[in-house]
Amino acid sequence: MAANSKREQIISIVTTELESIAAVKHVERRLPSKADLENFAITQFPVIAVVAGLPKPVEHKVTRHPAAKDVFISKLTIGLFCYFQDNVNPDTTLSSLLDDIWVALFSDPGKGGLAQSTDINPEVHQDYWDPFYAFKLDVVIKYQHDTGGI
Questions:
Q1: Residue 79: exposed, middle, or buried by beta-carbon count in 10 A (0-12, 13-18, 19+)?
Q2: Which residue ranges in the chain fall short of pLDDT 50?
Q3: Measured CA distances, 103 to 45, 100, 109, 120, 141 (Å)
């Protein structure tokens, strides 16, 4: 059932949107360690790790009809951990990558009709672990589902 859950479908769409960005070389569904990053060739950067949380119900509509299912409005937060290498102009590279991600994720804020809205919340702090630069975005997808699944 997990492959058919709205949660999984939304995460797959976000992953596909990120993979469509020409500048992004590798997208994966787990958070890499520093050792993992060191195993990537420089030509495989930028790398984006897609790490999804659990949906948080923000609204619950109880159905009075015995054959109907209750409806939930939930927010799904998907963390995007972005890693790149640039010894010359890292701030320019960060701006360019963030701009590309922003455009891709807002190209279909309804995520193929599965979502009500898409919001992006960049973290204020960026990190540097020689030679890797990193920043994080939280993508918050608001969507509707029922008691039949997430």
A1: middle
A2: 1
A3: 19, 5, 10, 11, 15
Cβ atoms 55, 146 nearer than 8 A: no
Q: Quote the pLDDT of residue 67.
A: 72
75's tokens: 């927010």
What pLDDT does 148 receive? 85
Of 39, 42, 50, 102, the closest CA to residue 81 belongs to 50
Tell me which residue range forms the domain holding 10: 2-146
**Predicted model pTM:** 0.91
CATH number at residue 52: 3.30.70.1700
Q: How far apart are CA 8 and CA 41, in angstroms?
A: 29
- Which residues does residue 28 pair with via DSSP β-bridges, in sequence order? 49
Write down the number of H helices and E strands in the chain.
3, 7
* Total tally of structural domains belonging to the chain: 1
Give residue 116's identity as a one-letter amino acid code. Q
Coil/strand/helix, residue 87 = coil
Q: How far apart are CA 80 and CA 138, in angstroms?
A: 6
Query: How many residues does this entry show for the chain?
Result: 150
